[in-house]
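Sample pair:
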Amino acid sequence: MITAPTSKIGHQVLERVLESGEDIRVIARDPQRIPEEIRTRVEVIQGSHADRSIVNRAFEGADAVFWLVPADKNAESVYDAYLQFSIPAADAIVRNRVDRVVAISALGRGQQRYAGNISASLAMEDLFRSTGVHFRALTMPSFMDNMLRQLRFMKNEGLIRFTIPGNLKNPTVATCDIAAAASRLLLEREWSGQESLAVLGPEDLSYQDMAVILTEVLGTPVRFEQMTLDSYKQIFLGTGYTEAMAQSMVDMDIVGADGIFNALRRTPETTSPTSFRQWAATVLKPAFDAL
C-alpha cells in the first residue's frame, strides 16, 4: 500500500515497487495525475489518506504500507498537519493488522528542543510506534530537490538564498535515494522491530560549496546570499501558508542553523549514493535550461 503516489518521493517509490511484480494498492486524491501506464497496473483508492474510511479500505489485506504526509499549508497547527492527519492510519494499522510500515520522517530525535515540522514528524513516528507495528522511520536532512525552488533566483539573479549561514556544512539527500531505501524496505519481509534509519547522502556541503558546484554544472555564476528569517517567513505567508505553518518552516531553519542535522555520524548503512554534483547535473540542470 503506497500513499502520496504522485509526490516527489511517492511516485519514485511506486515506480520502483512496480518493477517487483508485487500487487500494489495506492491512495490518490486525483488518480488522473498517475500516468495511465502505471494507473492500469495498480489498484487505486481515490481520496485522502487522512480519511478514516479511505485508509480502512486501503489497508485491508495490506502487509506493508508506505506512509508520507503531504504538505498542508492550510493547517492551523503543524501537529494537525502531521499527527492528527495520521491518527486514522494508526487506527487502520491496528484494525487491519498491517505487518510493516515505512514512513518518511526527519532527523532530530533526542535534540530536546522544538523544531517545527521536525518535531511534528517525530510525534507522528511515535504514534505509529504505539500501534506495535514493525516500523521503519526514514529520517532525512534537507532534500537536494528543494534547490529546484531556487531556479528563478539562479536564472535571473545568479543567486541561491537561504537563512542558514553559508559556511555551515550539512548533509543533504536526493529524493531518488530516499525512494530507493523506502522501496527496498517495502519489498523485504525479513525485518522486524521499530527503528529509525537515516538517509544522509554521501557528503556534507555548505550552501557556499553548493554555489560553487552549481556554477560549474550550470556554466553560469551562482553565489549564496543569506536571507533573514522574517523574509523567509514572508515568502510562505505570501504563497498562502497559515501563520502556524509558515512559522514551522522558520523554526526548522533555526535548529538547522544550530546543527540539528549534524548529530548523526555517517555510516555505510546511512550513506546514500547520489552526490549533490550528480543530482545537479541530472535533475537541476535540465530544469534550469528549460526556463
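The chain has a mean pLDDT of 96.
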